[in-house]
Amino acid sequence: MTEPVAAVLAIDGGNSKTDVLLVDADGTILASLRGPGASPQAVGLEASMRAFDDMVRRTARDARLPPGKPLARHTAAYLAGADLPREEEMLQRAVAEQGWSHSTVVGNDTFAVLRAGTPDGVGVAVVCGAGINCVGVAPDGQISRFPSVGRISGDWGAGEFLATEMIWWAMRAADGRGPDTALLPAVLDHFRAASAPELVERLHFGEVPPDHLGALTPILFQVAEGSDEVALRLVERLAEEVALLATVSLRRLDLLTEAVPVVLGGGVAVGAGPLLWERVRQLCTTAAPRCEVRVVDVPPVVGAALYGLDAIGAEPAAEQRLRSAGRALLGGIAERMDDPR
C-alpha cells in the first residue's frame, strides 16, 4: 500500500464551524479549510459524515494530494457532540469508516483546546462557545469530564444561553419589571428593532435568523466595559461558572496545589477580553494559587493536529513549526470571518 503524503488529518468539528488541517510529519500545514458547523447532534450522523467528507476532500484538493484513500497516516477528529461514551464510540466507528487514514482517534472538541493550550495535554481546559464544557487531564493520565449536554446536566452559560439572558434583562428594563440597563438599546440596535415589542414579536414568530442570536453575545462584554450593572452581573456569573468548572476539575484530579495550566477557549471566552479573563484568573487562583490561567492562542484544530503528531511519534520540532503556522492561521481565519464576501 502506498504511504499517504500527509501525516495527519485533523478535524475540529464544533457546533458553529468546522476546521480541517492536513499536516506533514514535520509540522508543516499542507492545507487548511474552515467550513460550517456539522456536528452530529445538530444535523444527524449521516449528514455530519457527508459534510465532513466533503470538507476533507476539498482540503485534500487544496493540498494537491493524489486522489484516492487513504489521505493521511492518522486522523485526529475532535468533535462537538462526543460528550458521552456511547457518542464517542458511535463517532469513532463512523469516522474510521470514512477511510481517510490508517488509524483514527475521535474525542470531544474540548480536548483539542486543552492540547492547543498546553505542551503535553496536561491541565484543564474550559470551552465557552456555542456550548460550555470542561476537561482535565492529570500527569498520571487521570481524566475529569462533565456530561455537558445543557441544562439537564447542570450547565450554565455559552453563546445562545447568554444571548437569551441579555434579551430577558433588556425586555424587563423596557416594561419596568427590571432595572434600567444599557443592554436594552444595545440589543434593539443589534436586531435593528425600533422597540422592545417589535423585537419580541419577531423572535416569537421565528423571524430572526439563528446566527443573529449567537452574534449578540460579544455585545454583553462591550456593555459591561461601560460599567453597566446588569451586564457586569452576567459577566461575573459567567466568570464564576468558568472558574467553578476549572477548580472542580483540579480538585477531582488532586491538582489544586500544583502548577498546572487552565486554558480558556471557545468563541465566547476568547472574544470576551480582559474583563472576563482577569476575573476568572482571580477566582481560579484563590482556589488553586499555582494554576496559570491562559487564553488559547492557536485554533483548536491545531490542538487536534498536535494529538495526531503525538500519535505518529513526530519530532518535538514539528510541534513548534505547527504552532507558529497555527498562530498565522488564526489571523487568517479571523480575516476570512470578517470578509463580507
TrEMBL record:
InterPro entries: ATPase_BadF (IPR002731), ATPase_NBD (IPR043129), Euk-type_GlcNAc_Kinase (IPR052519). GO terms for molecular function: kinase activity. Keywords: Kinase, Transferase. Residues 11-308 form the ATPase BadF/BadG/BcrA/BcrD type domain. This is N-acetylglucosamine kinase. It comes from Longimycelium tulufanense.
